[in-house]
Amino acid sequence: xxxxxxxxxxxxxxxxxxxxxxxxxxxxxxxxxxxxxxxxxxxxxxxxxxxxxxxxxxxxxxxxxxxxxxxxxxxxxxxxxxxxxxxxxxxxxxxxxxxxxxxxxxxxxxxxxxxxxxxxxxxxxxxxxxxxxxxxxxxxxxxxxxxxxxxxxxxxxxxxxxxxxxxxxxxxxxxxxxxxxxxxx
Length: 185
Fold this sequence. Notes:
Layout: E1 2-3, E2 12-15, E3 18-28, E4 36-43, E5 49-55, E6 59-62, E7 65-76, E8 79-83, E9 90-93, H1 95-98, E10 110-116, E11 119-124, E12 128-136, E13 149-154, E14 159-163, E15 171-175, E16 181-184
Antiparallel strand pairs: 1-6, 2-3, 2-6, 3-4, 4-5, 7-8, 7-10, 8-9, 10-11, 12-13, 12-15, 13-14, 15-16
């Protein structure tokens, strides 16, 4: 058991008997009132999010969390297949668990899978990934008065804004937190 004041983003708790992961935490002290902790949690079993409020001295039950590094292999209609690099065991995760991470998954990309009570709960990508540009319009000469950007389609199907000098076939670095262009790889 821990106090609600000790809650941090990424922790796993048991709320109303169900395991949940903490997505965001804010400590509030409104005027003359007592302090409280406002948290956004996502239930592991259902995938639904909830906005909950705890008294700052309320006790919260923590849940066992483990992390496992897996490599992405491929995706098919059954789901996304990951391989354990040491044992070569294959683990299949469903589309709802992958969420927006699918826009960055390329073969052999190492990801961390957060497991709560032995069940996969969340996929954490590296801070940046290198992706190949498959389609991009040519930059127009003289169209560079300011920092002009153009759309480019990446090998995963994601479309990002890149500078005019990026051409098809180049590999670029993408920030997985914001989904923006960082530079050439």
